User: Fold HIT domain-containing protein from Fundicoccus ignavus.
Amino acid sequence: MTNCIFCKIINNEIPSAKVYEDEKVLAFLDMSQTTPGHTLVIPKEHVQDVFVMDESTAADLFARVPKIARAIEKAFPEIKGMNIVNNNREFAYQSVFHSHVHLIPRFEQDNFAINFENNQTSYSQEEYADRANKISQNI
Assistant:
């Protein structure tokens, strides 16, 4: 899809902090970093949401989630838990209409309800790159 930001990331038209990539799936840090290590896992095939996703694409996408989650946990040993979120359609707060799974590490000191606020001004690009590097080294 030509106007999809995630398709542009897949095609390297827009930079991202990739933590995992294979022929079917891409994982990269969410720009908002709801918590440190907040990662998006997306199918490389453009599919809007779970309602139109075929079983093969779903299997490819969701089969990678545990592997990436474990890498995030190894990268940030202070993690106490993780939210795994998949929003579908605008009414359910989907804001990018290319299906994606949020892996949101939870830390003892965090105090957020899942609100997906943009926290880009809370960290430097160096911190962002370091987070991606820590995760990708643990996959």
